[in-house]
Specification:
Length: 410
């Protein structure tokens, strides 16, 4: 099989879908390839026992009226406002606001931003407040000391994931927005090829020529412009001819386990999403989907999604446990030490999803090293990277990449 498109988009997550949608609506012939059997990437909504379950909590972080209108135009049902800011547990109580947003009451001695999360946070709130209020949660999520985590990581968490008053959310789950984008792509004449793996990045004379793919229709997809919405390292590794040596460096990945519990009650708490720094509690944050969209859960029931971060080592205290033991530990923690209920016996496990490579981790002193692969890719004529940390930054990155491809076509 050999096909030609103006633009080939690699990856069907929010960035890839947004790129394909913008390019197709702009008049380009577009083919999007996705390795799995459905679009969305991590932004998927599962269905089980009459419930809709997002694959973890996914706040889109929409802040502009034009983007709300964009989402409303795409979806069959309007995007809804959730009047519940992210909360946290502090001194045994649930209080509004994320750990990373907290500020000291009075003047503090700030420290130098040395490129680490410790330095970046200390330069904003001071070392003592950082260590007392913020450190525990971020280190529980990432599993590294703040002195190892990069400043870029903590800065993006603070700047890009703000929802101090509440948040906009697509009815039916985050997957409904992904499906709507996919529908928009095909309605504009684009093609989406699922179960299609990229096995070769084809380039010649310093420019891309297409990709080699495997799956139900193996062959070559030719294009003058490629939009990469997947791991740059994976594309460098697939380069034909091979990329120069030394571009790829080892990357540590953080694992996450999603434990879903269903309870025979209307709600457990009044919050949509709660961050928990207490190390005695398995999860770092927990979503109660009824408060995101009541239609996702049957009447008289509530569903919790506990996000448990770790590494896939045998000595990791949570990853090493069986699904049943992990679900029981989550349920028991609702009683002790959290004290959110006196009796959690009406909660039962609904589903457990494990992701051994949920997101990459880069030490502060290795940030420059991991840029070599994407820089080499971007130097190829016709290659456009689309990368973003949140749903909306990924969507915007995809649209920017599509704009660059369109400008080249002119």
């Amino acid at each position: 099989m050999r096909e030609h498109s103006d633009v080939v988009v690699l990856g069907g997550g929010p960035a890839g879908l947004a790129a394909a949608l913008a390019a197709a609506r702009g008049g380009a012939s577009v083919t999007l390839v996705e390795a799995s059997d459905r679009v969305g990437g991590l932004c998927r909504t599962l269905e089980q026992d009459g419930c809709r379950l997002d694959l973890g909590g996914h706040i889109p972080f929409i802040h502009h009226p034009a983007r709300i209108a964009w989402a409303d135009e795409l979806m069959e049902r309007p995007i809804r406002w959730v009047n519940r800011p992210v909360a946290r547990v502090e001194h045994g109580r649930i209080v509004p606001g994320r750990y990373i947003d907290q500020m000291p009451d009075g003047p503090v001695a700030l420290v130098h931003d040395d490129g680490t999360a410790a330095g970046q946070l200390g330069s904003r709130v001071g070392a003592a407040f950082r260590d007392h209020v913020i450190r525990g949660y971020l280190e529980k999520v990432d599993g590294w000391p703040l002195e190892v985590i990069s400043a870029d990581r903590s800065r993006k968490l603070h700047d890009e994931q703000r929802a101090p008053d509440g948040f906009w959310y697509p009815e039916g789950g985050i997957g409904a927005l992904m499906d709507a984008m996919a529908t928009g792509v095909t309605a504009a004449g684009g093609r989406i090829r699922l179960n299609t793996q990229v096995t070769g990045l084809l380039h010649s004379g310093g420019r891309v020529t297409g990709v080699e793919v495997a799956g139900s229709q193996p062959g070559v997809l030719e294009a003058k412009d490629l939009i990469c919405a997947v791991s740059p390292a994976a594309m460098v590794a697939a380069a034909q001819p091979a990329a120069p040596d030394g571009l790829l460096v080892p990357i540590t990945h953080r694992a996450v386990t999603f434990v879903y519990l269903i309870g025979a009650r209307e709600q457990l708490t009044e919050e949509a999403w709660i961050q928990v720094s207490d190390l005695r509690v398995p999860f770092s944050r927990i979503a109660e989907f009824r408060h995101w969209d009541p239609g996702m859960v049957p009447d008289g029931q509530t569903v919790l999604c506990a996000e448990i971060y770790g590494f896939t080592d045998d000595d990791d205290p949570w990853w090493s446990q069986s699904n049943a033991a992990l679900a029981l530990a989550v349920r028991d923690s609702l009683v002790n030490p959290l004290g959110w209920t006196d009796d959690a016996s009406d909660f039962r496990p609904l589903r457990v999803v494990r992701m051994p490579q949920a997101y990459p981790m880069v030490e502060a002193d290795r940030v420059d090293a991991v840029t070599h692969a994407p820089i080499w890719l971007e130097d190829l004529e016709g290659m456009h990277l689309a990368r973003g940390g949140t749903v909306m930054t990924a969507i915007e990155a995809g649209e920017v990449a599509a704009t660059r491809a369109a400008l080249r076509a002119r």
